[in-house]
Each structure stands twice: as C-alpha cells, then as structure tokens.
Amino acid sequence: MKLHSKNTVTLIPLQFPTIQIGQRLTAVVTEALQTEHIALVHGDVVAVASKIVSTCEGRIVNLQKVRSTPAAKRLAKQYKIDEGLTAVVMSESDQILGGVKGFLLTLKSGILTANAGVDVKNAPYQSAMLWPKDSDLSANHLRQSLERKFHTRVGVEIVDSRVTPLRLGTTGLAIGVSGFSPVRDERSNLDLYGRVIKVTQTNVADDIATCAHLLMGEATERIGAVVIRNIRTTLTKSDSRNTKISLNRCLVGSNLAKRP
Question: Is the entire prediction scored with pTM above 0.90?
Fold first, then answer.
C-alpha cells in the first residue's frame, strides 16, 4: 500500500569530515547541509551527534594527563577499567550506582547512563570524549543560528547512544533538546477500544534520536547529523528537562536506589 505523503517521515543523513577542536558548530552543520544541497523547512528536526558538538566545544580529555585518586584506583581494579578513564568518569558523574567489567553505571544530568557519557570510541588516540557541558544550551544556540540562516522554525537535538536494561546493543538518546516538545502526552486520549489512556506519554525526542542513531552508526560512517522531516511534533520552547523523571519515579532507578 502506498502511504500518503503526509504520513511519510523522511530521514536525511549528513556526512561530515573529521571535525577539529574549536570549530564552530553552526559552521560545520551548515556546511554539511550545503554539501548535501539541503535547505531546512518549517518543522524539520536536526539531530546532531554529541561527539560533533563535544569536539567543537573542546570537550576532550587527554587520559595520559589525568591524575588518578585512591577511589578511582579501587573502582578501576574492581571493574577492570583504565584508572585515568575511571577518574574522568567519576568527575563527570553525579552518582555512581554500580558497574560491570569495563563500565560504571552512573547518573549524569538526570540520565541513567554508562560511564557518565565518557567515551574513548571515535575520540583521538589516548583521549576520551565528554558530553557537551550543557547540551540543552548547545542545542538552543545551534537552533537559533539555523533558524536565522534558513528563515524558518526548526527543532534541534543532540544525540548519543545508550543501552537498555537486559537488551543487547545500543539505541539513541536525546541528551539535549531545543525548539520542539520532546514528550507527547497521550493521557485522556482513547485507545482502539474506547478506553481512556491513563499513563502513556511518548518520548518523541528519544524516538527521533533512535531514528538518527540508526543512520549515524557507531564506527566509520561519518554521519554526524540527520534531518528528520515530517515528524509528528510541536514546535515550542522546551528542552530535555521535560523528558526526565526523578529516581524514585523510575521503575529501574528506584529499584537500583534500594540496593544495600
């Protein structure tokens, strides 16, 4: 069956060259759009890989220069992690909840994630990449610049990968959001059988992040951003805080917090 165009979501991948520390984020994203001959239109959401943003912002640590601590040495030994990397993860974490071989389970900016977002993959040799300092602020600055250039209203989000409990592999995670409502509230709507929906809310931002992550990949793809067109969302002033809940409201997090 042929879908009507209004029901068709379009994903437009943007390939990037190797980004250098200190380049302007707006410039590298705009150049990627121009290379692919893409002009943004009203309602587009631009999903940008967190490592593109972090590189532009200089959020890279030379692990050879990191000084370890007794606490970092203990955790590194317990979970078989490099001492320098462990020290960086500890400094980036709001809370450490546990770990497995090679990874610490952390809380970072209200997000339950591995290693506080610190990653050596696709980082320069002997270095680690950190999340942007303020992902919402970075997304907001980029959105404002793109809207001025293309004379239209768009959304922007910053994407990283995450793991899901008891599932193998990574999916997408929106760590920064600007310009659109990241959550769609389904409560009070009716389901197929006429029952009132009581609790369901759809995390649109993470759904978009997963779409983008599917194209971005995790290796040498060089897809640093994806334009998502014709997505069902609402352009509005918002950020990623609207996607977060407290630890005691989270099915997984609240049970982790109960551990002795």
Answer: yes
